[in-house]
C-alpha cells in the first residue's frame, strides 16, 4: 500500500519534579524494550531527552522527535507527570497523539518506587480539555510495559488514518447521477478534517482519456490485466480501453495531487459514461482500490473518504458496496439455518456492479454490467469484475456528513458467509448480528445512503477510535447494538 502513511511514534516520558526521575527513565526503557520484542522496532522512536519535567524540556523533546521524523506522539506518564509541560507538548506537536501511564510494578516497591501515574492521567486529561487538545486515550490507559506496548500498537491504525486524512486530496468527476441524492453531502466537513477536494467535470476526464489514446504504456497494462484475470478474461476486446482509462486516472492523480501526499477518487460511472467512453469503469476502479487508491462509485465523496480511512486502518484492500438485497428465505433455510448462528434478519447481500478487487473475490470474471445492458447495447457496458466475495470477517462502516453539516458514523462487524449468491456483480452474503434492528434504527433512522464501506477483517475498535478522534459526536457513532440494549427510536413493545 503506497497511498497511505507510515507511522513513526515518538515516545516521550514525562515526570513530575517531586517524584524520582529514574521511575520514568526506567519505565520508558522497559516499555521500548517490550515493544521491540513484540512488534516492529521501526514503529517507534525513544526520545533520549532524559525526562520532560518543564516547559524547556518540552521544547527540547519536541525538537528532537521532529528531527527524528516522528509523525505521531506517545506521551508516557512514568509517574504523576507535569500536567502543564506534558499537555503543551501535545498541543505543539503537529500530528496524532496519545497519552498512556505506567502501572505500579510490585507490592514490594510502593515507597520510593510508587509513581501515581494512575492519578496523573486524570490531571493530564483535564488539562488536555482546558487547552482543547485532541488526544487518543486507550480504554484503560494504565499498564505495565507489555500492556503499554500493546496500547501503542493499537494506536498505529488510528494514527495512520488521522495522518492520511491530513494529507489527502479527494478528486471527484461530475455530479451525482439522477436519483442518487443519497450520495450528496456538504463538503464543509472535509475541510474541517483537513482534507482537500478537487471537483471536476466528467468532460475534463473524457478529454484527458482521449489524449491518452495510443499511449505506449497501454500494452503493458493490458498484459497485467490479462495476468490478473486469467481464465476470467471474458471480454479481451475491452482491455485496451480500460488500460487507457487506468493510465488516465493515475496520471490525473500525479498531475493534480498538488501539495498533498495521498489521493482518492469519487468517480462517475453512469448514465452517460458508458455511452461516451464505450465501457464501464468498474474493473479499473477495483484495480486502483487494490493498490490503496480507493475509487468510489456514483461520485460518492463520503464513500470514497470512508474507503480511504479503512485502507489506512487495515493496511489492506477495501470495497464500497450497496447494502443491497435480502437473502431469500429458501436460501436461508438451505444454506444458513442450522449451519451458522444467525437469524434470517441478520443476513443481507452486499453488492456493487464490479468494483471489488480480485484479491477479495472467490473467483472473478470480466463481464458486462447487466443492469445497464437492459437498456443499452451490451458492447458499451463491458468492464465489470464479477464474482462472489470471499468468505471471512468484515467490518461494514461509513463516515458521513448530514445535510445540516453534522458528522455521523457507524461501525458494524460481521462476516461474509461461504454461501453461493447465485446472482451477478461483485456480491456476497453478509451476516451482522442484529442487522435487522441496526438497518431500521441506524441506517434508516439516521438517513444513511445505501453505500457502505467494507474492510476485510474486524477493525471496529480502530475505526471507532478514528471517528472519535475526528470529533464525530459520540452519540452519533453507532453500532449494531445487542437486543438487550434498545435504540432510542425502537418500539419497546416489539
Structural class: alpha/beta
- What is the end-to-end distance? 47 Å
> How many DSSP H or I helices?
16
Shape call? globular
Strands, count: 18
Placed side by side, the strands forming the largest sheet appear as 10-11-16-15-14-17
- Provide the gyration radius in Å: 25 Å
Averaging pLDDT over every residue, what do you get?
93
User: Helix proportion of residues, in percent?
Assistant: 25-40%
Largest β-sheet summary: 6 strands, antiparallel, barrel
Please explain how this structure is put together:
With 494 residues, this protein is of the alpha/beta class. The longest helix is centred in the first third of the chain and has 22 residues. It has 16 helices and 18 strands. A six-stranded antiparallel β-barrel has the order 10-11-16-15-14-17, surrounded by four helices. The protein has a five-stranded parallel β-sheet with strand order 2-1-3-4-5, with helices on both faces. It has a four-stranded parallel β-sheet with strand order 7-6-8-9. Helix 8 packs across helix 9. Strand 1, helix 1 and strand 2 form a beta-alpha-beta unit. The protein is 37% helix and 20% strand. It folds into two domains: 157 residues, Rossmann fold (3-Layer(aba) Sandwich), CATH 3.40.50; 313 residues, no CATH class. It is globular, with a radius of gyration of 25 Å.
Amino acid at each position: 500500500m503506497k497511498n497511505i502513511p507510515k507511522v513513526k511514534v515518538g515516545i516521550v516520558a514525562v515526570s513530575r519534579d517531586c517524584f524520582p526521575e529514574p521511575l520514568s527513565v526506567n519505565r520508558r526503557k522497559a516499555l521500548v524494550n517490550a515493544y521491540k520484542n513484540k512488534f516492529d522496532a521501526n514503529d517507534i522512536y525513544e526520545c533520549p531527552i532524559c525526562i520532560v519535567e518543564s516547559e524547556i524540556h518540552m521544547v527540547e523533546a519536541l525538537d528532537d522527535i521532529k528531527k527524528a521524523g516522528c509523525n505521531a506522539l506517545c506521551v508516557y506518564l512514568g509517574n504523576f507527570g507535569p500536567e502543564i509541560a506534558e499537555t503543551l507538548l501535545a498541543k505543539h506537536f503537529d500530528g496524532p497523539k496519545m497519552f498512556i501511564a505506567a502501572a505500579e510494578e510490585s507490592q514490594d516497591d510502593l515507597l520510593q518506587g510508587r509513581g501515581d501515574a494512575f492519578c496523573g492521567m486524570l490531571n493530564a486529561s483535564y488539562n488536555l480539555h482546558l487547552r482543547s487538545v485532541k488526544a487518543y486515550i486507550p480504554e484503560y490507559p494504565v499498564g505495565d510495559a507489555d500492556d503499554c506496548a500493546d496500547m501503542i500498537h493499537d494506536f498505529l491504525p488510528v494514527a495512520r488514518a488521522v495522518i492520511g486524512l491530513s494529507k489527502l486530496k479527494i478528486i471527484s468527476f461530475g455530479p451525482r447521477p439522477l436519483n442518487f441524492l443519497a450520495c450528496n453531502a456538504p463538503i464543509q466537513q472535509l475541510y474541517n478534517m483537513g482534507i482537500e477536494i478537487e471537483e471536476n467535470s466528467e468532460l475534463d476526464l473524457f478529454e484527458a482519456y482521449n489524449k491518452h489514446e495510443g499511449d505506449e504504456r497501454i500494452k503493458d497494462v493490458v498484459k497485467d490485466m490479462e495476468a490478473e484475470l486469467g481464465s476470467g478474461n471474458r471480454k479481451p476486446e475491452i482491455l485496451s480501453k480500460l488500460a487507457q482509462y487506468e493510465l488516465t486516472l493515475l496520471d490525473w492523480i500525479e498531475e493534480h495531487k498538488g501539495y498533498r501526499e495521498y489521493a482518492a477518487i469519487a468517480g462517475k460511472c453512469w448514465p452517460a459514461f458508458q455511452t461516451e467512453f464505450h465501457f464501464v469503469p468498474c474493473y479499473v476502479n477495483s484495480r486502483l482500490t487494490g493498490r490503496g487508491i480507493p475509487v468510489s462509485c456514483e461520485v460518492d465523496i463520503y464513500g470514497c473518504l470512508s474507503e480511504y480511512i479503512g485502507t489506512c486502518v487495515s493496511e489492506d484492500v477495501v470495497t464500497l458496496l450497496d447494502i443491497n438485497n435480502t437473502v431469500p428465505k429458501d436460501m436461508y433455510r438451505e444454506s444458513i439455518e442450522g449451519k451458522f448462528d444467525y437469524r434470517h434478519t441478520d443476513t443481507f447481500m452486499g453488492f456493487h456492479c464490479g468494483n471489488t478487487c480480485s484479491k477479495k473475490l472467490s473467483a472473478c470474471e470480466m463481464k458486462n454490467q447487466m443492469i445497464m445492458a437492459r437498456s443499452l447495447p451490451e458492447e458499451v457496458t463491458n468492464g465489470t469484475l464479477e464474482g462472489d466475495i470471499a468468505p471471512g470477517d468484515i467490518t461494514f462502516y461509513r463516515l458521513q456528513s448530514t445535510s445540516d453539516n453534522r458528522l455521523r458514523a457507524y461501525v458494524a462487524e460481521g462476516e461474509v458467509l461461504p454461501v453461493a449468491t447465485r446472482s451477478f456483480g461483485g456480491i456476497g452474503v453478509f451476516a451482522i448480528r442484529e442487522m435487522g434492528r441496526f438497518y431500521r434504527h441506524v441506517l434508516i433512522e439516521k438517513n444513511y445512503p445505501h453505500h457502505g464501506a467494507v474492510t476485510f477483517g474486524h477493525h471496529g475498535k480502530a475505526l471507532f477510535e478514528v471517528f472519535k478522534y475526528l470529533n464525530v459526536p459520540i452519540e452519533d457513532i453507532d453500532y449494531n447494538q445487542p437486543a438487550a440494549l434498545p435504540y432510542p427510536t425502537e418500539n419497546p413493545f416489539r
